[in-house]
Amino acid sequence: MSNQPKIKIMFILPSLSAGGAERVISFVSQNIDKEKFQPLLVIAGFKKDAAYDVSNVEVTYLNKPRILTALPSIISSIKNRKPQIVVSSISHVNTAMSMLSPFFKKTKFIGREATVLSKRGNEKKIRQWSPFRLLPNGFKNLDALICQSQDMAEDMITNFNIPKKSIYVINNPISNLPEVKQTQPTTKIKKFITVGRLTEVKGHLRLLDILSKLDQPFSYTIIGKGNLKDEIFEKAKALGIYDNIEHVPFTNKVNDYIAEHDLFLQGSYVEGFPNALLESCVVGTPVIAFKAPGGTKEIIENGINGFLVENEEEYLQKLKDSKTWNPKDVRASVYKKFNKDVILQQYEDLFENIVKN
């Protein structure tokens, strides 16, 4: 056992509600080497909203509705706990921590970005207010910025003037390893599934257009909630495929659902690092996805765990493809790159190096 003092790290999130940033940060905070690190997870929001088990790390809930109102408590926590490192995730939280950084000279501030900001900023109707409006200078005081994909890193360098030396690409980890599914017998009805928020950027509407042109029987399961729900199902009715669709607003058994389907369909216009897509490959269900900006193309290997396509016509052709997939090969393709030991080591190396330097 090392005699070196443990590195104190404070992880900060707005809430522990279901989401990619919340899943990854809660996972990292609980699973980094406790012989080297002393983690504290600070949640601006409320314990009642927690969607993740965080029993393996010390947690402080500030019981505030948003980061802005939680800032005084966060400042107090940093003063009292004196962490060597503060890790935040999600753009507006990173911006807030960048603002605090000059006041805590002995603390290193690391942000983790969750999307390709320049692309998300240009999407219509995504959200009425976006932290994108605070940039390009919103991250300037951070000591390091973690990006989930190469596209995201290049976006931050090119469009937001973040120095290349400050950027670290760390993909999301496979945090849960369910049993890989068995090879399913071919049936006359193809079973498709999509998991994600019902928002414009996720591309549900263009997936419906494609499915309406499919000249073979199919069923389509959509898991997720969002403000585009009514528009999605009105369009499904107009296209005559409403009866083919099952909607599951929320479930704790996402992996079970994915395993029961033949293909995972992703219609996104942009992604940070798509967790649901990765989870699909982990259980052995292959994916069809557009070549969108973000981490999708770092996950998909054509013909191995799915298909990447350029346009809707090519997407339709791949839906008709009769390829037989080996679930074990689908899983192996992502496990070798994104298993938790590989990703946690990258986080630990970053934390140790930034304190040394």
UniProtKB/TrEMBL annotation:
Residues 182-317 form the Glycosyl transferase family domain. It comes from the Bacteria. Signal peptide: none annotated. InterPro entries: Glyco_trans_1 (IPR001296), Glyco_trans_4-like_N (IPR028098). Gene3D superfamilies: Glycogen Phosphorylase B (3.40.50.2000). Pfam families: Glyco_transf_4 (PF13439), Glycos_transf_1 (PF00534). Residues 19-174 form the Glycosyltransferase subfamily 4-like N-terminal domain. This is N-acetylgalactosamine-N, N'-diacetylbacillosaminyl -diphospho-undecaprenol 4-alpha-N-acetylgalactosaminyltransferase. It comes from Winogradskyella damuponensis. The gene is pglJ_1.
